[in-house]
Amino acid sequence: MFSLWAISIACGLVVSALAALPVCCFQSRIEDHTDSKIEAKENSGKPPKPGKRTVWNLEGGVFFSTDGHLPNGSCFRLAGQMTAPEFFAGLRRVETDQGTSYVSHDKVVTQYPDQVQIVLHLLDYPCSPDLKDTVVRPPITREIMSTLRLNFYWKEGLHMSPVEDSKRVGASVRRIGSYATGPAAGEELAPRFEWDYAFTVTSEKIPLVNDLVLVIENEQHKICARVAARL
Predict the structure, then answer these.
(1) Do 50 and 97 contact (CB within 8 A), yes or no?
(2) Across 105-112, average pLDDT
(3) pLDDT for 156-189, tens place per residue?
(4) Whole-number Cα distances in Å, 70 to 188, 216, 218, 222
């Protein structure tokens, strides 16, 4: 469990740009998709391949994103990435009628490496994309961030268990610049911030079919955001 309090440490995160994208499940790129029925029609006379087969390219790691809400009316966008040195290079997820498998350079992989890295970008963000929504939401301050807690869980099916070991290795905070122009530019506005974090999570002997779930809670243990890094 970590308090989401940031100190000025450069951590070189690569997910800042993700916060500007629409909320969606950041799926890895589909590299290959075949359907034996379609192939049979296109190649009459040739025996069809057994069942459907979809290959997902996991090069670069796993990306995820979600929106969060605080009881005081503040909202935020949380984006992140799971990486591990060399592990995701060449990694593919292969889905067939028989199930899901993971392959790296023609070798079947079944478990995570001993440790994975998680980088997070939390952005003070509008609660609604509607430009007509004129409700002023409270800014997320350092004091508010210090009351939030981040928990990591491994999820297998419906069962979730806390990770055995995790460590925060970097954090930073930046003030978001104002886009106001003209007379409005001189008005005093409540400052808003974006926050970056880096963590290491022990993943030794964890099956690749398990998801890493991130849960942000407030002091009353109310869930403010939940998202999964899913291969």
Answers:
(1) yes
(2) 95
(3) 999 999 999 999 999 999 998 776 555 555 555 7
(4) 24, 10, 8, 9
What single letter denotes the amino acid at residue 105? H
- Per the model's pLDDT, the better-predicted residue between 178 and 197 turns out to be 197
CA 18 to chain centre: 9
Distance (Å, whole) CA 3 – CA 172: 13
Q: How far apart are CA 41 and CA 145, in angstroms?
A: 58
Cβ neighbours of 138 (radius 10 Å):
13
Q: Which residue, among 4, 50, 16, has the nearest Cα to 148 in the 3D structure?
A: 4
Alpha carbons 195 and 4: distance in angstroms, whole number:
9
The candidate with the shortest Cα–Cα distance to 140, out of 36, 4, 2, is: 4
Q: Which two tokens stand for residue 155?
A: 């999820």
- Cβ neighbours, 10 Å, residue 11: 14
Question: Which three-class secondary structure state does DSSP give residue 128?
Answer: coil
Q: Coil, strand or helix: which one is 143?
A: helix
CB 58 within 8 A of CB 28: yes
- Residue 193 to residue 177: CA distance in whole angstroms: 9
pTM: 0.78
Dihedral sign computed on CA atoms, order 120, 125, 130, 135: positive
Of the candidates 217, 19, 201, the residue with the CA atom closest to the CA atom of residue 121: 19
Contact call for residues 169 and 11 (beta carbons, < 8 A) = yes
How far apart, in whole angstroms, are the C-alpha atoms of residue 217 and residue 5? 13
pLDDT of residue 26: 46
